[in-house]
Amino acid sequence: MNNALKLNAFDYFLILGTTAVSIASSLLGEGWDTIGFIVAVTGIINLVLCAKGNIWNYAFGIVYNAIYVYIAWHSKLYADSAIYLLYYLPMQFVGWAQWKKNQNQESGAVNAVHLTRRQAFALLIAAAVLIPLFAWILSRPAIGDSQPWLDAATTVISILAMYMMVKAIAEQWYIWIVLDAAQVIKWTVATIRGEEHAALMLVMFAFFLANAIYGLIQWNGLARPSQDQPRP
Question: Considering the entire predicted model, what is its pTM?
Fold first, then answer.
């Protein structure tokens, strides 16, 4: 049987927990939030399957990313909206094709690798340059982003993490942990401000954070040593 398709108790906890809290949040709020509910559920299924190295995560990722574009734009998180539309969404199709080529036929999971020292250095330099640049652009009066530094940080981190996901690099999960923690802060602020869909986005990213920690553990077991690291 395809091991990448098997869900364990924690997988069900993440999926059913996100679903249940999303339903409760809508019922206790001002009304049923269909858009927020769909993006929360498809988002967590996307990441649960990704944590297992399952290529079908991209099918749910297409739906999740398309809807999140609208939600981020509506909340005036313009960098988030742009990166999901112009990068995240297209990369779902790229990732599907790359994982298909790199799929383990026996287990059904993607063949993961560890980050090389050269890749790590390049990613750190890219983040150090791009985050301040994006924050400066987003803070301009013509754009008026509501949270320029945090929005810029999550945007840049998203770009780097998505690249690592497509390349099936195990250390991507460290970045997802940082990213999801930042998203929790961002949507907590948005929830306090009373922005539409914000409460469900906060719930969703809290579960995403738990899944990222779980994904790191899973992928450390899947990954092969990188070429510039000594084998045990």
Answer: 0.75
